[in-house]
Automatic annotation (TrEMBL):
Keywords: Membrane, Transmembrane, Transmembrane helix. It comes from the Eukaryota. The chain crosses the membrane at residues 101-123. This is Uncharacterized protein. It comes from Verticillium longisporum. Residues 1-84 are annotated as: Disordered. Residues 59-84 have a biased composition (Polar residues).
Length: 428
């Protein structure tokens, strides 16, 4: 509400009293009373508030001081663009706005250049990956080619083995045992398989040729390679068929005859007496010659081959417990071949102990297989028919060879064969 000025008063209103920002307020009466109609009351002195200050009334120095203090409190960021950069960016933006087609061309060119650089950088990896795949494929084809070649060689060797075995009836072992050696070479070059016709044929032929009593059969029985071939056939032929072949060809009689003959070596006249040798062991070059095979070294080599074949056979028999029914039946048949009375079994064991005694003073390099000789002897003895006179049979047939072996091993042996007649003459 505007309060009228007294016309009689010459005093001018205060500065800003009539302006838009002036707000006279009566302290004695509220504002609502001035709106009420009625007679005009006499004017009374009114106290007024000074108008608020505006931005124009604030001195410029104060504004500058505040601005300066603001700059000191919150400085501008260091990475903020300068005025020149801002101007340049604005000009570039205006240029792109004015030349949109040229800007699109430049963008496409930059994108194409980046794509080209990416392709060039990735191309060597594609090339190396392609080369690695090509090398892998080449290696696979090479391995497949080698496998085909190996299979072809195995088929060729198997065919040659069958031809060689079938020709043994016409050619025999050969003058120097060359057919036996060729059979051994082909037999060891062919792996074991379900087809065992060649192995069974050579087994039956060898046992048939070794059964007769002549020099040719004796040479074949003494030849170590013959027993190595038998050991190889013992590994490959099924036990049921093997037991039938061994029983038909009188294997036990051939074994007994061979052990008996090699337990009595022929000593040459110029031979040096055997002593416990500490020299370097040597390897004997065995030839297909009867006279050479009858020597002490020849008998030891033959005995090593015989015991090796027996060890293979007995190992297969012991390991047939968890096989098929036919294999178990074959194993029992083979055990039955060795199931003889103790008086017959000692005829196999006494020659083996004699071989051990000869080997104790030999310088042949067969120490690796000699460790299994006594184990094989024990396995044969365990398959006997047990009786009440077993200990007596051992004392009669094995005591001399056993004591002689122990004496040579301890260095206390005296190589003297005291017979019953000698005991009577000496009064022992």
């Amino acid at each position: 509400m505007h309060i009228p000025i007294d016309p009689g008063s010459s005093a001018s209103p205060p500065a800003g009293a009539g302006g838009p920002n002036s707000l006279p307020v009566s302290l004695d009466h509220p504002a609502e009373e001035h709106d009420a109609p009625g007679p005009t009351k006499p004017s009374q002195p009114v106290a007024t508030l000074p108008p608020p200050y505006t931005a124009a009334d604030v001195p410029s120095q104060t504004t500058g001081a505040v601005a300066g203090s603001s700059d000191q409190v919150s400085p501008q960021p260091q990475d903020a663009p300068t005025k020149t950069q801002t101007t340049f960016l604005a000009q570039v933006g205006r240029w792109f706005e004015a030349h949109k087609f040229a800007a699109s061309c430049i963008a496409l060119f930059v994108a194409f250049a980046g794509l080209l650089v990416a392709i060039i950088s990735v191309f060597p990896s594609f090339k190396s990956q392609y080369l690695s795949e090509e090398a892998l494929e080449l290696s696979r084809w090479t391995a497949f080619k080698d496998y085909i070649q190996v299979c072809s060689e195995l088929v060729t060797r198997g065919r040659d083995l069958v031809k060689t075995v079938r020709s043994l009836d016409q050619t025999g072992p050969g003058n120097d045992g060359e057919h036996i050696e060729r059979t051994w070479t082909l037999l060891t070059s062919v792996s074991s398989s379900h087809f065992y016709a060649a192995e069974e044929t050579v087994l039956r032929w060898l046992l048939k040729s070794m059964k007769t009593n002549n020099d040719a059969a004796d040479t074949l029985r003494r030849f170590p390679l013959t027993w190595r071939i038998l050991g190889c056939t013992f590994q490959r032929i099924p036990l049921f068929s093997l037991a039938k072949s061994l029983a038909d060809r009188k294997f036990m009689a051939i074994l007994q005859q061979t052990l008996k003959s090699i337990s009595k070596p022929v000593t040459p006249k110029d031979a040096v007496p055997a002593t416990l040798s500490k020299k370097r062991k040597r390897t004997l070059e065995v030839t297909f010659d009867l006279e050479a095979l009858k020597t002490r070294d020849g008998c030891i080599s033959t005995g090593d081959a015989v015991l090796g074949a027996l060890r293979i056979l007995l190992a297969r028999v012991d390991g047939a417990a968890h096989t098929s029914q036919n294999e178990r039946m074959g194993a029992e048949h083979i055990k039955g071949l060795f199931s003889q009375p103790a008086s017959d079994v000692v005829t196999y064991l006494a020659p083996i102990l004699s071989l051990c005694e000869y080997s104790a003073t030999s310088d042949l390099s067969c120490a690796e297989t000699q460790e299994n000789w006594i184990h094989t002897l024990s396995a044969i003895w365990n398959l006997r028919l047990h009786g009440q006179t077993d200990s007596l049979e051992v004392a009669l047939y094995l005591s001399r060879s056993a004591f002689g072996l122990l004496g040579k091993l301890t260095g206390l042996a005296i190589d003297v064969d005291i017979t019953l007649e000698g005991r009577v003459n000496t009064g022992i």
